[in-house]
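Fig. S4 source data, part A: sequence.
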Amino acid sequence: MRELDLVRDGRELPTTVYYPEGAGRFPVVLFSHGLGGRPVDYAPLLRRWAAAGFVVAAPAYPHTSGDAADYDVLDVVNQPADASYAIGKVLALDARRGDALFHRLATDRVAAAGHSAGGITTVGLFTLARDARLDAGIVLSGNSLGAGTGFRGTAAPMLFVHGERDQTISYASGKAAFDAVPWPKALLSFPDGDHGTTLLRDGGTSFQVLTATTTEFLRYALYGDPAAKSRIPRAAARDDVAQLDDQL
């Protein structure tokens, strides 16, 4: 794990990067936190992705993170541009001789993921602020508020995850965003899931299902692993706590 001190047009974006040990070139996943969140809050999930063979970059956004001095929920609209900037800076490390990630990034295989407002940020990266480098997306407990449903650009498989008892961002609004996606997609629904407390709690059954399903999705989408695609439904069905609408 390492920290990058990134700044876009005066917007400070301290970015935590989790990466695998060992040789090889690894796909990159940009992860966006929710309102009042911090990258460290999602460490259990992000470390699992890194251990599975992905470089995960998680910026702390300047006006919506838990460390923000000038908190402003409306600043979410600026976060897709922040996320794209962070992606570019991380990908550039592959060409920086002497850097720990020198020649270790699969720069042509990139995904975006995020939770809550970070999920909205992720949707924005495929709609109003489409980042052409993105090959896949994961939206956790998010919707299209402010980001729109005008999905554009090259088709990119997307996985939506939502708790049906979410009282912060309704399940219906999340599913509406999912329904608008014109590409291969899947929706992992947790009938007893809330906005994220149970889904993201390390060690819980729902967390294990979330981790396994998202990891197999990333393997399928970024490594092109056909076996991983067939494992997605099996991961989702574990312990009968979730349901999968699989349109991949």
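Fig. S4 source data, part B ends here. The first strand starts at residue 2 and ends at 8.
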